[in-house]
Amino acid sequence: MKKLLRTWFCLFLYILLVFFCITGAAEGQDEKKDWVEQALKAYDAQDYETSLYYFTLLADAGDPNAQYMTASHYFFSRGTEQDFDKAAVYARMSAEQGIPASQSLLAIMYLDGLGVEQNVAKAVEFSQLAADGGDAQAQFLLGWFYDYGIGVDQDFAKARDYYQLAAEQGNADAQTNLGALYEDGAGVPQSYEEAARYYQMAADQGFAYGQARLAQLYEFGDGVEQSNETSLKYYQLAADQGDPMGQWGMGKAYQFGVGVDVDYVKAAEYYQLSADQEDPDGLECLGYLYLEGLGVEQSREKAIELYELAAERGSEEAQRQLLILGW
Q1: Can you give the residue ranges of every domain in the chain?
Q2: Which one of 1.25.40.10, 3.40.1380.20, 1.10.3430.10, 3.40.50.80 gives the CATH number of domain 245-327?
Q3: What is the pLDDT of residues 248-280, one digit of tens each?
Q4: Which residues contact 21 (CB under 8 A, 6 or more apart)?
């Protein structure tokens, strides 16, 4: 199952790309040059209240890069309370001047209705503008739109193309989802080897979901040499970051004693963490433990409740178990 990982927090990386653009725009203007220096100095010192003050001065003077920086401060609650409305105002100013990072930010805001009225068509529109401008996050998002047919006709080949562009820029979300396309053979020839290659790229960046997907390949020896030790390593790394697939993988390891001693209590704990995030596999496996009384107090009622939640989220195994239980 491919999955959108909405990494709004990753947008802060674009800040590093626009610093020199802002400085260049202010050259020859002593007052603005001082604002730039003060803004960057404060930002580097993580004094976001001060950096917001100076970026806002520049933004109100019409600098499109400073407008993006101001929007990002409000969006991510840096030096101020989170304010999506103000973030949208400054992001739109910047986007209208052709700044891809702002167009990308607006796309996310329109997708989820943050500071603007939710509008998927506009989310696609701004994603396309930003993607055409080389913005990796927008390329990933546009790939996701085509992957799932959201706001556009589903087209795995186009999803692959946009994921590829973003992946080449080091976007871990795109690397993971591109790997998933290769694993599933969607829009590309099916290849576990290619899937493993892209998952590894994401895992090497510490990206939790990429680690979890790579762990599963090592678990079954798909495209890589089978290794319980390596599988457990990546599941643990992902679980430690709160990834529900990683938590589910660790639950399996403890349930079946793969690379660790069998420990149903620990299995239940990991499944619970996954289930708390409404992961269908975590819900289904936790349901089984309750049904059998493994690591938890046996409860048919609790098992059915968990199976129902898992079934609602697409778990075929949970649906099968409900049929067996006559539910």
Answers
A1: 1-115, 245-327
A2: 1.25.40.10
A3: 999 999 999 999 999 999 999 999 999 999 999
A4: 65
